[in-house]
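User: Hey, quick favor. My workstation is busy. Could you predict this chain's structure for me?
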Amino acid sequence: MIDALIINEQNVIEEPVIRHDFYNPFVFHSLLFNFQDWMHFSTVLFPMCSGDIYGLSVSDFRNIDARIELGKKLSLLLFDPELFPAFYKFARSTEPTGSRHDYEKYLPYYKRRDTPFLRIAYPIMSHSLHAFNQWDRKKPIKKKWFKTPTLPSAIQLNDWYRKKQKQLHFIIYTKELLSIKKQNI
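Assistant: No problem, here it is.
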């Protein structure tokens, strides 16, 4: 049932989001999007109150087969019998603000908040509902979408996360430095 929901969800967003006349060229083919994909900065994280972080990187997001495969792997990870209770405890214990601080406060190397609340950084957006199309009447349902994937061995991401944070801070610092030099020229 979960696989069918993932397959449906990804097919439903394919036309109005992924292939949309605006989003496709200006978001999904932008330099920033491609850079994030190449550097593996887009990752779905499942944090725990213990400070452990599990998750999977998002790559090749424009490809529906890759999104479906990722969704199925994420469901395997989320509902893993040994991990789910800790994910659930985190979800019940942590008020979501949309900031990395929501889970960073549990990390052993806790640092002060340096990311804004989501609603401070971005305005509330209203969305319009596009005409609903029965995608399954327009294209075949692939058998491979129902195959059970295997999880990669590296799903515990604490060390990876710390490395990515250092890379991100280096990029921000470099951008700020170049900005200052440009202003002084």
